[in-house]
Amino acid sequence: MFRNIITISMVIAFFANIPLFAQDAVELAQVDAADSGDTAWILSSTALVMLMTLPGLALFYGGLVRSKNFLSVLIQCGAVAAIASILWVIVGYTLAFGEVSNGFIGGGNAWMLIVLSDVREGLFIPESTFAIFQMAFAIITPALMVGAWVERARFGWVVAFCALWGLVVYAPVAHWVWGGGWLSKLGVIDFAGGIVVHTTAGVSALVAAMLVGKRTGWPKSLMLPHSPALTFVGAALLWVGWFGFNGGSAVAANDDASSAILNTHLAAAVASIIWILIEKIKIGKPTTVGWATGAIAGLATITPAAIDVSAGGAIIIGILAAIICFFAIGLIKNKLKIDDSLDVFAVHGVGGMLGSILVAILISTSFGGTGYSDDGSMIGQIFIQLIGIGSVALWSAFITVILALTVSMVLPMRASADDERDGLDIANHGERAWDIES
């Protein structure tokens, strides 16, 4: 009898550890193991987004400056990518995606990425995969600002400013919108970074450009791109990398990812064609730089809306991105006389904010979009988007002034007149990009 009791007890204990229903088994599987397909896609997307900064953005910006400053642009992008990576692991990730408490900054549960879950909550990928994917965003966002101060900002100031900016501007805003913070709870829509990436970088770039001052001789002297060919290659790399930027933001290998990629491609294609059409009308010739700039404008503008609008909506976004960003460049440079050298605000800032407003309209099922929430409406969503854009723009501008001036007390912001004349390649780095004489 005693032996039978033991046997029955062992059987009961065995079956007690097996889920009785299929749904229980699925839930346990979701907690214990990540989906290999989703994980592979996000890791691939991470590589694509990294490709956007190095070499994509570096070549795009590098081709737009004069040859004597080409290397300075490359090393600024490279150094910003390196320091942003280190700080993201140490503290940036937990500030952006740590435990939600007050809605303004993430909790410190993931310092140095020490405590990460096997599976990121709400997703089907390891938290380490999610962290490195988000790190790629934290890298490219401050790197975008490099285009505002090229040819005159000191290297040390650039690296220190961008390092602090990533922690004090980017990480908190990422938490507000993507990390469960107060803008997320308000209902702000920003699929892949129209507000978090492009508004923060664009507004901060404009402020930094005003603080560092105009290039010597600008705008009276022509400062033409030394290599439109490199700019074209850089733009092409950015275009391809953007498939990971937007497609990867679905955080799964599913229909949302493919829809985001389709819309991303359409917006870039339309904007590039509209841009060179405007050039043909205004200056008589379509240019390589114009095509590249138009493509980037379309990519930046579709970013917050890529998953929520239809293909037709993406085409509308591409058209408006080209028209509005094209004339924004003229407004900033010709009317306001601000030397935002490579048009970071006019392309990324204006594009990101424009897309963040357009998504509130084109998300409507009338335009083929995914539709509003049960208690949402077009007017209500536009109002919410404006709150998101306005608060992030004000935060970015205010903190940029403080950080830029504070860092300049230790590391001078502006290169000397002699260094600027000689070119930053030689003055700051002792190298030349092109050895023409050999």
Question: What topology emerges from the helices and strands here?
Answer:
Blueprint: H1 2-16, H2 22-32, H3 36-64, H4 70-97, H5 127-144, H6 146-149, H7 155-177, H8 182-186, H9 194-212, H10 228-247, H11 255-283, H12 288-302, H13 311-335, H14 344-362, H15 378-408, H16 417-422, H17 424-429
Q: Could you explain the architecture of this structure?
A:
By secondary structure, the protein is mainly α. The chain has 17 helices and no strands. The radius of gyration is 24 Å and the shape is globular.
Name the features.
single chain; 438 residues; disordered N terminus; mainly alpha; 17 helices; globular
SSE ordering: HHHHHHHHHHHHHHHHH
> How far apart are the first and last residues' alpha carbons, in Å?
97 Å
Rg for CA atoms: 24 Å
Class by SSE composition:
mainly alpha
Shape: globular
Care to count the β-strands? 0
In terms of per-residue confidence, which ranges show pLDDT below 50 for 5 or more consecutive residues? 1-31
Strand content: under 5%
Offer a concise description of the structure:
With 438 residues, the protein is mostly helical.
